[in-house]
C-alpha cells in the first residue's frame, strides 16, 4: 500500500484515503482501528460486546508505533490509544508524536491513553492508567502531614455540627388522643391540657385534661416527680376587656429521675411548640419553664403578660452642685 508523508496527514487526506466510510459509521458501530500511515490502515468492526483485552493487544506490533481507536461504554465516546514502543526507531516515534495532535483534532477524540509496550496496551494497563489519572497528585511529607491535619479538623467540625443538630430538637410522634386534646383546647371545649412523653414508646401522650376554674388550680395538677408540658387558656380581664391568653408551661421539678427523661423533654420542647403553633394553629402568648411549682399562680401569669411598672416613682431629682468660689447666689440691683 502507498504510504502518506506525515506533512500530508490532514483530515482531507484521511477522508480521501479510505476513511470516509469509517467516519460515516462512527455513530452507529463499535470499532477498533489501527492506522499506521497507510492509505486505508487496518479496520476491524467487532460487536459492541467485544472486550478491550481481546482486540487491542493483537493489533500492536513490536517496534511499530500506531494509533488505536476503541469505542468506550459511554455513547459516542472514543478512546485514542497512542502506542509508541520504547524500542521503536526514534524517527518513527518523532513522526507519530508530531502527528498525534492533528489526528486527535480530525477525529474529535474524547480520551487518550499512551502505551509504551505491549503489556501496557492491555485492559490491565488501561485500568492502571485510569487509577493513576484519578489519583491525587504526589505530595511531600510536609504536605501529607498538613492534609492529615486538615482532614482531622474537618471530621471534628462535622462531629460538633452533627451533635448540635441532634440536640437542637427531637420531634416525636403525637398520639391521636393528644392531637384531639390540642384541638379541644383550641375550640374552647377545655382550658387545660397536660401532655408528656411515653419514655418506652417515645411518643407524646395525654396525662390530664379538663376545665379549671382559675389559674391557681394549676399547682394541684402538676406532678411532683417528673417533667410535663402544660397548655392553659388563661381567661382574664385587662383594660375592661375579656382576654384569653394561651400559655405553654414546661415544668421540670427537682427529682432523681433518669437523665434520659430530662434530655427527652428538653429536646422535644421546641418541635412540640412548633407543631402547636404551626400545624394546630394555637397562638401561644407566653412560654414558661418552671422548676419551682410555687411560682405557678394567677398573679405570675398576669405579671408575664403585663409587667408591672412603678407609677408612683418620681423623676430623678438632680442634686445641687457645690458652691462656687464666688459663694452663694447674690442679689444684684
Automatic annotation (TrEMBL):
Any one annotated GO CC term: actin filament
Alphabetical keyword list: Actin-binding, Cytoplasm, Cytoskeleton, Repeat
GO BP annotations listed: actin filament depolymerization; barbed-end actin filament capping; positive regulation of neuron projection development; regulation of lamellipodium assembly
SMART domains in alphabetical order: ADF
Name recorded for this polypeptide: ADF-H domain-containing protein
Region of interest (Disordered), residue spans: 312-333
GO molecular function: actin filament binding; actin monomer binding
Localization of this protein: Cytoplasm, Cytoskeleton
UniProt cross-references to Gene3D superfamilies, sorted A to Z: Severin
ADF-H domain segment(s): 5-131, 169-306
SUBUNIT field: Interacts with G-actin; ADP-actin form.
Source organism: Varroa destructor
Family recorded in the similarity comment: Belongs to the actin-binding proteins ADF family. Twinfilin subfamily.
Amino acid at each position: 500500500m502507498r504510504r502518506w508523508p506525515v506533512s500530508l496527514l490532514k483530515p482531507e487526506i484521511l477522508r480521501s484515503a479510505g476513511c470516509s466510510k469509517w467516519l460515516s459509521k462512527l455513530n452507529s458501530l463499535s470499532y477498533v482501528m489501527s492506522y499506521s500511515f497507510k492509505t486505508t490502515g487496518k479496520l476491524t468492526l467487532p460487536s459492541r460486546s467485544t472486550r478491550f483485552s481481546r482486540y487491542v493487544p493483537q493489533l500492536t506490533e513490536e517496534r511499530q508505533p500506531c494509533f488505536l481507536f476503541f469505542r468506550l461504554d459511554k455513547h459516542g465516546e472514543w478512546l485514542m490509544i497512542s502506542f509508541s514502543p520504547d524500542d521503536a526507531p526514534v524517527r518513527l516515534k518523532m513522526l507519530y508524536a508530531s502527528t498525534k495532535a492533528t489526528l486527535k483534532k480530525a477525529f474529535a477524540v474524547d480520551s487518550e491513553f499512551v502505551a509504551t509496550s505491549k503489556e501496557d496496551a492491555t485492559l490491565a494497563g488501561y485500568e492502571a492508567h485510569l487509577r493513576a489519572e484519578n489519583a491525587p497528585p504526589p505530595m511531600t511529607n510536609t504536605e501529607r502531614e498538613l492534609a492529615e491535619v486538615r482532614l482531622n479538623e474537618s471530621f471534628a467540625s462535622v462531629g460538633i455540627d452533627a451533635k448540635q443538630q441532634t440536640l437542637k430538637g427531637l420531634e416525636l410522634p403525637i398520639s391521636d388522643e393528644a392531637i384531639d386534646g390540642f384541638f379541644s383546647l383550641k375550640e374552647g371545649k377545655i382550658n387545660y391540657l397536660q401532655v408528656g412523653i411515653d419514655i418506652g414508646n417515645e411518643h407524646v401522650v395525654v396525662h390530664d385534661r379538663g376545665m379549671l376554674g382559675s389559674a391557681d388550680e394549676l399547682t394541684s395538677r402538676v406532678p411532683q416527680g417528673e417533667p410535663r408540658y402544660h397548655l392553659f387558656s388563661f381567661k382574664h380581664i385587662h383594660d375592661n376587656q375579656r382576654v384569653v391568653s394561651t400559655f405553654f408551661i414546661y415544668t421540670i421539678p427537682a427529682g432523681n429521675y433518669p437523665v434520659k427523661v430530662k434530655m427527652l423533654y428538653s429536646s422535644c420542647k421546641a418541635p412540640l411548640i412548633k407543631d402547636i403553633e404551626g400545624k394546630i394553629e394555637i397562638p401561644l402568648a407566653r412560654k414558661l419553664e418552671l422548676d419551682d411549682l410555687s411560682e405557678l399562680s394567677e398573679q405570675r401569669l398576669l405579671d408575664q403578660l403585663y409587667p408591672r411598672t412603678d407609677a408612683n416613682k418620681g423623676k430623678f431629682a438632680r442634686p445641687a452642685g457645690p458652691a462656687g468660689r464666688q459663694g452663694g447666689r447674690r442679689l444684684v440691683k
